[in-house]
Write a structure and sequence with these properties.
Order of helices and strands: HH
Number of strands: 0
Largest sheet: none
Strand content: under 5%
Number of helices: 2
């Protein structure tokens, strides 16, 4: 897995955790922002993973 995909996946997991905490504490708008960030970072993780798979490796 490419390094950027791994970083994006970590950001995704952390933002999902922050969204859960925000929703449980009653801050709905902040939770929505965290969910949007999780969606963005999830898409970035898939993109970089797919890009890393199709890119030719330097030998």
């Amino acid at each position: 897995m490419p390094r950027l995909a791994l970083y994006a996946l970590i950001v995704c997991l952390l933002s999902v955790g922050a969204a859960v905490v925000s929703f449980t504490r009653g801050s709905g708008w902040l939770g929505v922002v965290w969910v949007l960030l999780a969606g963005l970072s999830s898409n970035m993780a898939w993109y970089y993973r797919r890009k890393g798979r199709t890119a030719p490796r330097a030998s």
